[in-house]
Automatic annotation (TrEMBL):
Name the UniProt record assigns to this protein: Cortexin domain containing 2
Keyword terms: Membrane, Transmembrane, Transmembrane helix
GO CC terms of this entry: membrane
Alphabetical list of InterPro entries matching this protein: Cortexin
Pfam families with a match to the protein in the record: Cortexin
Domain of life of the source: Eukaryota
Source species: Camelus bactrianus
């Protein structure tokens, strides 16, 4: 029985690998922006954490 539902060019493992790499790059971009925000203004980013511990 021939699998006519999937074309021969579809590779499931390759699709998972590409999706994983794309999600990894998106996570990396989000982390870069968060770290840049923290470096730009560290007191504003950590002000809520220090206020709750001091009171």
């Amino acid at each position: 029985m021939d699998e006519s539902s999937l074309p021969s060019s579809v590779d499931v493992d390759k699709g998972f690998a590409i999706a994983f790499v794309v999600l990894l790059f998106l996570f990396l971009i989000v982390m870069i922006f968060r770290c840049a925000k923290l470096v730009k203004n560290p007191y504003e980013a950590s002000s809520t954490a220090t206020e709750t511990s001091l009171s």
